[in-house]
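Thread: quick sanity check before group meeting

JM: Hey all, I'm pulling together slides for Thursday and realized we never actually wrote out the predicted structure for the chain we discussed last week. Dropping the sequence here so it's in one place. If anyone has concerns about the input, flag it before I start.
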Amino acid sequence: MTATSAPAVGDTLPRGCQTIELHISDTNQLFNAMDPAPFRERDLDPNAEEFIVGWARELHHDRPLALVVHLDREPVTPETAATLKDAVRKFFQERARVTRLKLRQLFRTGRLSMAIGLLFLAASVVGGDLIANALGENRFAGVIRESLLIGGWVAMWRPLEVFLYDWWPIRREARLYDRLAVMPVRIVQD
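JM (edit): ok, ran it. Output follows.
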């Protein structure tokens, strides 16, 4: 059954949007039963969140998203649609905010790790040179110098990992939550 063949309320779906369709008996299934807050402020049920986010990840990132909720038993009213839209938007806005906070914390950790790593690398180079000069130019001195140099570069592994690889999946997740926070929500009576 499509959104146009059954009674529906809520936002108008923009042309060319990609729809995430969810079938439930009543709107309570969408919300976390452990959260005592009113509907507009409640967290989504973890299974509902996983379903919506998982489906959104599979869709093209350059086209708008829309959520179509098919209700089996509960009557469809404009108030229900407005409440659901507000709850979904607030939930994903908060997820985007928390994800950006996580990204800022990662960069803060990366900067601290980079400073520590650079200091350790410098100390390893200087220490290796001092030990090699004290022992003279022989194989043992060369092994110690190279070992300290390798240890210094290994200390740089984590900061480089943060700045080269770790940040972009978190940023992509924040962008996805931003898209989910602004998607139109439509409820269809099945």
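AS: nice. DSSP finds four helices and four strands in the chain. Residues 102-173 form one domain.
JM: adding both to the slides.
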